[in-house]
Specification:
The protein is of the alpha+beta class and 187 residues long. It folds into two domains: 56 residues, no CATH class; 119 residues, Jelly Rolls (Sandwich), CATH 2.60.120. Helix content is 17%, strand content 34%. It contains three helices and eleven strands. Strand 1 and strand 2 form a beta hairpin. The two termini are 49 Å apart. The relative contact order is 0.22.
Length: 187
């Protein structure tokens, strides 16, 4: 740019003309090319192109399916009944959508008595298994963190995700925090 301190007169409809003075002249050539700005174009046209570019970017971002992360805390009372009383953790996403669970890990906090039931899993509400922990996860006698194992599964449209178990436990007083990363996919 020849003169970074150049004063540019601009006017907008229904307003008085005003002056814009550039104090920093750092212009990225690729941005100029991307926006299709020609040398000598008026400021109004440049601003219009910038706004259109931002609106296009906003539109593209709306279609990106972002990961969601949640933490689910399961009490010892809930764990003692997990085989008969599942806990819904992600609600149905709606018709034409599905929940894709990307990763799961859990922390069991041992208190004084291990659970006698030994399997906790994540499933769709129709019973299709998604992830499960190793066989001895709930019967741990110390606090530990473990990644759940992906099961061979069919992804189901418009079904809630729940924490369930293979059996209910008669004993156990620890708690489990489950960390789930998932995304909602529009079909």
């Amino acid at each position: 740019m020849e003169n970074c301190e150049k004063t540019i007169n601009v006017s907008y409809p229904d307003t008085e003309p005003c002056e814009i003075k550039s104090s920093s002249c750092v212009v990225i050539p690729s941005a100029i090319s991307y926006l299709g700005i020609e040398q000598g174009e008026n400021v109004t046209l440049v601003i219009t192109k910038l706004v259109q570019s931002l609106m296009n970017t906003r539109s593209r971002l709306k279609t990106v399916e972002l990961n969601n992360s949640i933490k689910v805390s399961v009490s010892s009372e809930q764990l003692n009944n997990i085989g008969t009383t599942p806990i819904e953790v992600i609600p149905e996403p709606g018709v034409g959508k599905l929940i894709e669970v990307r990763s799961v890990f859990s922390k069991i906090t041992f208190v004084s008595t291990a659970f006698d039931s030994n399997e906790i899993l994540l499933s769709y509400k129709d019973g299709s298994s998604i992830w499960n922990h190793t066989i001895n996860f709930l019967s741990a006698t110390e606090t530990k963190i473990e990644t759940a194992l992906l099961t061979d599964r069919e992804i189901v449209e418009n079904k809630a995700v729940q924490v369930t178990g293979t059996d209910s436990s008669a004993t156990g007083d620890g708690t489990v925090d489950i960390y789930i990363t998932y995304r909602i996919v529009t079909l």
